[in-house]
């Protein structure tokens, strides 16, 4: 369970990102994910209206399924991994004046007969009194340490609520790396192993004979939910790196942390150039 706290930073803005739009009520939500750990039975998130008009916000559950290329799509019906039967929350609708906040409390019911595994649903907050139809989703690969998510548009903001009813650990392997010379990028396929989601970061670097590393691309966060086994993503190489002639010793790593340290867990490595 030592992975849970650091990997929560990975969960933010995953599927839809709204364009600029006028909105009277501006919703801010923190944190951007909730993970029930060990014997924890309660949790909370804070909703804040950072707009200049009073806003009314309605909360509901949504079950989402991950697409192979990333992002989320609505699951028809209640998903097998749904957290909805196991968690209750209150309140379900609030009206907030500008700068006013409301705490939403969650309670987990840990039944003894619940099969082992990872359960999750998305907590969806809809702004009822905005005229703009665009929507946002606050479950993404872009980590935002110490910050919430603010969207100047009508709903819906959706953040993941997760319960790991298991003592197992996450694992993953890199299946393939495809080099796209014309676009100067890599396409990486990562396989999730086991019952639980895996959350980590992809690194591309060259290792010199003396062991020093030169990073060849921006670190890319990658989340794979239990609804998906293999996920692909693209990584753009730095401007001074040519995909057609990568340096000797280039590798792709998938690790638990945004920066590889002595405490990092390295899930998988994949050599591109020996």
Which terms summarize this structure?
2 domains; single chain; 5-stranded antiparallel sheet; 5-stranded mixed sheet; disordered N terminus; 274 residues; Immunoglobulin-like; 1% helix
Task: Characterise the protein shown here.
By secondary structure, the chain is mostly beta strands. It has 2 domains: 4-165, Immunoglobulin-like; 171-271, Sandwich (Immunoglobulin-like). The protein has 1 helix and 20 strands. The chain has one helix at 4-7, and strands spanning 27-30, 34-36, 42-49, 55-62, 64-66, 72-74, 87-90, 93-96, 101-108, 117-127, 149-151, 157-165, 171-180, 185-193, 198-207, 213-215, 220-224, 230-236, 250-255, 266-271.
Give a quick precis of the structure.
The protein has 274 residues and is mainly beta. It has one helix at 4-7; strands spanning 27-30, 34-36, 42-49, 55-62, 64-66, 72-74, 87-90, 93-96, 101-108, 117-127, 149-151, 157-165, 171-180, 185-193, 198-207, 213-215, 220-224, 230-236, 250-255, 266-271. The model is unreliable at 1-23, 131-140 and 142-146 (pLDDT under 50).
